[in-house]
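User: Could you check the structure of this?
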Amino acid sequence: MIAVYILVAISILILPLLTIIFGKMLLNNPPNQSNNVYGYRTRRASLSQESWDYAQKYSGRYLCSLGKITLVVSAIIAIASVVLLSLLNVEESSLVLQLIIYISVGIQIIALLSVVPYTEKELKRKFEANK
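Assistant: Sure, the predicted structure tokens are below.
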């Protein structure tokens, strides 16, 4: 049963950890120019080298912060899940386990997608306000 608890924790914590890693990558090693492979890539970010550089740093900071917040929340959920699962019988715990993972990962994905509107809003504020 301990393997199941470890699997639950990994399932719940992997996306926040990856979010932090990708955020750090954008902060520490941003792509130098607009490309189709790596970085925060939208039309607004690609308008100029200045907007590209700013989008990489802003989205990197945002992802790092978001990853840290979701990591803390997810760790709390993982701990609560382990406690809850230890109190339930096998039939109940299987369904509860699936629900916990689906809900947690769903919330994490929604949070992760929020980088786009926030970065776009910031790019619009910074670069379209100067025109």
